[in-house]
Amino acid sequence: MEFDDMKKVWDTQNNEPLYVLNESALHNRVQVKKRKAGHITNISELLAIVANIGGGGFILATTLSKESSNVYLYLLAAWMFVTAIYCVVGRIRRIRSNTKFDRSILGDIDQAIATASYQVRLSGLLRWNIVPISVLIFLGLWSGEKSIWIAIGLVVFFAVTWYATGWEHNYYKSRRNEVQQLRNLLVNSDTGGTITT
Amino acid sequence: MTDAEQQTTLNLWLSQYKGLIFKIVRSYAFTTMDRDDLFQEITVQVWKSIPTFRNECAITTWLYRISLNTAIRFAQKERKRSESRTDIDSVSHVLQDNPVPHDGKLSWLYNEIAKLNEIDRSITLLMLEGFSYKEMATIVGITETNIGVKINRIKKQLTEKSKNYDHGI
What we know:
The structure holds two protein chains of two kinds.
Chain A: H1 3-11, E1 19-21, H2 23-35, H3 40-65, H4 71-97, H5 105-128, H6 130-144, H7 148-187
Chain B: H1 3-28, H2 32-49, H3 59-80, E1 95-97, H4 104-115, H5 118-128, H6 133-140, H7 144-166
């Protein structure tokens, strides 16, 4: 069969559509999907912003209300506010940069790579941010002469958080690599062929 | 643009161009559930894109770009996702097979298209739909030369495989 014959075969479906559309089922399910359409990047950013502002605000309020002179807790609150500001600025930049990609499949893939790279950067930064935060917390506990059990509990908590954020970071990295592979398929004319679905 | 205007445009586009989306769905999704999912995902993406459509290109070109991009990403995710579906029977399917029988050659063609990688599949669909190299380059975002090289390779591959079909293999 020559390609022109394949085109004729292809065109036969223009007269008789492949499927019958159940419009009410479509309408209901599209509404549900639209409600669930919150993007993972949005959620990560908002969580980081809320957690840092909330945590920093709580530490600042309790330290001020006790009229404590524990400088480490003030530093910790300030650090968390700075982290929140960094996340807000990053979010604004990311949203603004969305318009710079052209309206093609390559443009969409490039946008997906930019978003994935941003997620990798953000998750890496939030992971390493655990280090200064935990150091400041321990210094704050030490200077406040708190119980050893609180310190042990915090060590366990930070260890679990470090492990979990490492998993999240690697997950984003693998997603970025997948989209990068897709881009390679698109721009390299000699890399074609079949796949196993 | 109000929600009602957006919805009216979506309904109009779906009624006129659903066949175009069906072809992409069949080329990128291989179970009833996946076809439903992909069709819905494309519909949502098309719905979202309506306010940014500026009549700078044909509606079909716009729909192909949105639909193919959604399908490529869907297929990539699907390849990795395990088969862990629940309540498949409890939902009414959005797409139901049209009982009118189609040519066996068409099924063969869809089969061969399904074996291509996600990007080549897009280019094959655009080629079969009769888009020019220039239009394809605009939709896909790569040069016409690059499109030409890919098309030559795909055509050669499909023509070669069709010999087996012609001989009943």
